[in-house]
Amino acid sequence: MQKSEAAIGQEERHLPKLSRIYQSHPLYGVDIFISGKEGASDLGLLRRNGITTVVNCAVNLDFNFVQQDKIVSDHEGSVYGPGEIRYYKVGLIDGAGNPDTQMVAAHYILRAALEQILPDKPSYPRRERGSILVNCRGGRSRSVAVVALFLHLTLPNEFPTLDGAIDFVRRKRELPADEYYKAPKPVLAEAARRAAGWIRTIDAAK
């Protein structure tokens, strides 16, 4: 029987709204956080924790970080403007159905969010460099797999295996041990494992 949205929300309540997974990454000098939808949508919480960038791993979840007084409307029926947060979207399904290469893309999008150098133009107003949040709906599966893959590949001495990185992220996110079998979903962990090999090959060829 499929769970209702209310039941899923009830299940998620015991997790922290925001979890610091890694403090001061040696290559990037930033903290890495994970959250579900509640933490990612709380602009005040993000600011209090020095988060300037969000990478959303969920295909079934979006955020509007454009404050009302910053909205631009120069086309009939359209409103848009600069968001208060630099926002990147991966769009993974929490389970089967993702192309094999999408976890590879997720890793490179996360790296791009940390490495991208914006041009000095008024149309690129979000220039602050701070900590980064990786989110999905509950902060249990997709974001755990993506962050674990990132730590495994960028800090191989500290996280020589993907399984070790996943266990580290689970503990930091305070996931209950009885949820480990589905956090992250096995199909996503396997996708991360395959992605790790491909990414090493790609990076070695540069």
Rg computed from alpha carbons, rounded to a whole number of angstroms: 17 Å
| CATH fold annotation | Protein-Tyrosine Phosphatase, Chain A
Which outline best applies? globular
Looking at the overall shape, the CATH architecture is Alpha-Beta Complex
* Mean pLDDT value: 88
Count the domains.
Answer: 1
Tally the helices: what do you get?
7
Fraction of residues in β-strands: 15-25%
CATH class reads Alpha Beta
Largest sheet: 5 strands, mixed
Strand order in the largest sheet: 1-2-7-3-6
Q: Helical percent range?
A: 25-40%
Derived structural class? alpha/beta
- Total strands: the figure is 7
Low-pLDDT stretches: 1-13
Order of helices and strands: HEEHHEEEEHEHHH
Amino-to-carboxy terminus distance:
48 Å
Please tag this protein with its features.
Protein-Tyrosine Phosphatase, Chain A; 206 residues; 5-stranded mixed beta sheet; single chain; alpha/beta; two-stranded antiparallel sheet
